[in-house]
Amino acid sequence: MAQQSIFGRVGQLAKANINALLDAAEDPEKMLDQMIRDYRSNIGEAEEAVAQTLGNLRLMEDDVKEAREAGQDWGSKAAAASTKADELRAEGKADEGDRFDKLARVALGRQIDFEREVESLEPTIAQQNELVTKLRSGLDGMKGKLDELQRKRDELVARSKLAEAQNQVHDALKSVDITDPTSEVSRFEDKIRREEARARGQAELAASSLDAQFESIDDMADEAEVEARLSALKSGGGS
Asked: How far is it, in rounded angstroms, from Cα 123 to Cα 131?
């Protein structure tokens, strides 16, 4: 039966070990998406199967009810015909009595037919009730598994996006010299120190030049003194 095959698929899917399947999958997200589609498709088929089985079950229950009521009705007719036959015989109308007894026999035959119909349908109804119970149980299991699948997929997608964001941050940080965050400052400081050293060198050079100028002045003064004394000697010597 189609219901049985659907029930088989329902059972297999509901018992599936999602974690084991994810571990073996090359692309877990795609596998989960496909499983979700499969579950939804099979749940739809299972719901149709349950509805069809329930519909057939209700028809059989209606048939049993009608057959039971018809059997009871024919039993009442048989009893009424038998009673009428006895009354006619009591009145001395044997032929009429036989005719009603014949009608009673026909009614009893009909009653037996309907009772047998009820007896034949009752086991089938019990089987259908059992099948509906199993299908409903399997359907509930599949719906629960579908919820689990959807949660797994959402969790997987969230983790994937988080990992992607972390990788982007890591890649961005790799482009920055995180081992020496003051490297640029250090280079700027070295440049300033070099400029300061140059300034000190220039200052020292300027100072040495000034000293030389003062020394030349002192030398000129000495020479003037020498000339003055020489002139004095000559003046004195001449007198």
From this structure: 12
pLDDT tens-digit profile of 52-90? 888 989 999 999 999 999 999 999 999 999 999 999 999
d(CA 161, CA 70): 69
Q: Is the pTM of this model over 0.70?
A: no
Tokens 């089985």: give the residue.
53
Q: Residue 56 CB: number of other CB atoms within 10 A?
A: 16
Supply the Cα-derived Rg of the chain in whole angstroms.
59
Q: What is the DSSP letter of 233?
A: H
Query: Distance from CA of residue 138 to its chain's centroid?
Result: 21
**Closest among 24, 203, 226, 57 to 125, alpha carbons compared:** 57
C-beta of residue 118 within 8 angstroms of C-beta of residue 71: yes
DSSP 176: S
- Answer yes or no: are the C-beta atoms of 43 and 146 closer than 8 Å: yes
Helices (H), the chain: 2-14, 18-24, 28-90, 94-174, 183-238
